[in-house]
Amino acid sequence: MAIARNIFLTALVAMLLISAIAVIYSKYESRLLFMEIQKKEKELDDYEVEWGRLQLELTTLTEENRVEIAARQRLMLTLPAQDKIIYIKP
């Protein structure tokens, strides 16, 4: 009877230790996952900032008068006089 009781207590202690180790391991894994989530959220924030910059650059590059400004400044082009413009009918 005493031997069975000792075996039972030993089994309970072993199960308790295994359970404690499992809790510690799962807590460690959850912290690693939390750190990974934080890293991915920072990357997402960085991508959103870059996306905003790209949207602003796209808006700047697609302005209608940008081509005209570049033509005047870099190519020294000017608009022709009104009487020099020829309209072609389709």
Query: What is the radius of gyration computed over CA atoms, rounded to a whole number of angstroms?
Result: 37 Å
Distance between the termini: 110 Å
Query: How does the overall form come out from the CA principal axes?
Result: rod-shaped
Mean pLDDT: 92
- Helix vs. strand class: mainly alpha
Order of helices and strands: HH
The quaternary state of the protein chains shown equals: single chain
| Secondary structure tally: strands | 0
Main beta-sheet strand count, sense and barrel state: none
Count of alpha/pi helices: 2
Strand content: under 5%
Helix-residue proportion = over 70%
Low-confidence stretches: none
Protein name: Cell division protein FtsL
Main location: membrane
Subcellular location: Cell inner membrane; Cell membrane
Keywords: Cell cycle, Cell division, Cell inner membrane, Cell membrane, Coiled coil, Membrane, Transmembrane, Transmembrane helix
How would you portray this structure in words?
It is found in: Cell inner membrane; Cell membrane. The structure is a single chain. The protein is rod-shaped and about 120 Å long. It has helices at 2-61, 64-74. By secondary structure, it is mostly helical.
Which helices and strands occur, and which strands form pairs?
Elements: H1 2-61, H2 64-74
A few lines on this structure:
The chain is an all-alpha fold.
Summarize this structure as a short list of keywords or feature phrases.
mainly alpha; 90 residues; single chain
